[in-house]
Amino acid sequence: MEKEYNRNGGLTLVPLPGFIDLAAQIKELIEKLTGPKRHPTKVDIAIPEFGERASGEPYVRLSKDHIVDHDCVVITSGPGTYKMLVQLQLALAYLVGRRAGRIAAVTNYLPLTRSDKDEGEYELALISMIINLIESAASGKLDRIIAVDLHAAQEVTVGSKPGFITEVSLVRPILQKVITDIKTADRDAKICILFPDEGSQKRFEAAVEKTLKQFNLEATFICGQKRRASSHASKTIGISGDLASIKDAYVIGLDDEIATGGTNDSIARIIKNMHGAKAYYAATVHGVLCGNAPIILANPECGIDCIYVTDTIPVKTRTELEPLIQSGRLIVVPWAEELAEIIYRHHWGESIRSIR
Prior knowledge:
By secondary structure, the chain is α/β, with parallel strands linked by helices. The protein folds into two domains: 11-169 and 337-347, Rossmann fold (3-Layer(aba) Sandwich), CATH 3.40.50.2020; 171-333, Rossmann fold (3-Layer(aba) Sandwich), CATH 3.40.50. The protein has nine helices and 15 strands. The strands form three sheets. The protein has a seven-stranded mixed β-sheet with strand order 11-10-9-12-13-14-15, sandwiched between helices. A hairpin with a 5-residue loop joins strand 3 (49-52) and strand 4 (58-61). Helix 1 (20-32) packs across helix 9, helix 2 packs parallel to helix 3 (127-137) and helix 4 packs across helix 5 (198-214). The longest helix has 17 residues, at 198-214.
């Protein structure tokens, strides 16, 4: 009979607020995994309770049940708000205090992922400091942080040791969904892939090639030329590549995240009005969708026909986005199955970077 536990103990999921339902899904998916090389894996869930005392100071409640000598995986996500960061640090400190066997954190969207460089005279890059604070909260016992599609490739080097931040990618699953939907609606659709900049093209091209091969599909490629004033503002000043191929094509704008949607809207209008694209679909891993995003994307004159995002950042619980979902302009691609596989492989010491 296959062993049910490994040297790190039993597997326990520790969901932070907003991720309890996801943890329940992950538990069910992992416990159903079968196959000749699969270990039967029982999964426990330990839910920390966060609150504030009358003075406004925080407290946490978390018993030792399913924590002592267990392999504990905290599930949360950015954006790295004050509340999210403090809750994560408190949870990690409690796991150390409750004698967890091993501790990891799945942060989905890495906190302060866009603060990877100094910005002018007054703003310093914060991501290194934030990761140091997270490590310190776990008293050096945090084994790794698992994050999805980092904003910049160099962010894997942040942390105390190589491999501390482990990046996984959901570019293929979201691109698969977009292409499937396009081909279902129009079997003879001509597809053109738009990369936001040269850096993204280099990072995504292997995943794109694998996906196109899977569909036995040929596509053309164009690349945006982006001018970024800061991490908060950018402007696409042009596009390059096979521009003639845009006419009558379904253009898929592939990116790691979408914030307000303003840049996507602008490029979509150019692609359609100046180059004759049939449609523009935004395929982005992280749906930050902040600020004026609900207004920009709901505008009938918005150039984006459809926005695809994963739920690395919870979407369906955000009421301001519900009209976009109901109208079909915003499509959420769940990643629970990928996350279950990631956590299973982490638990059993298997490679997670090779997923998809």
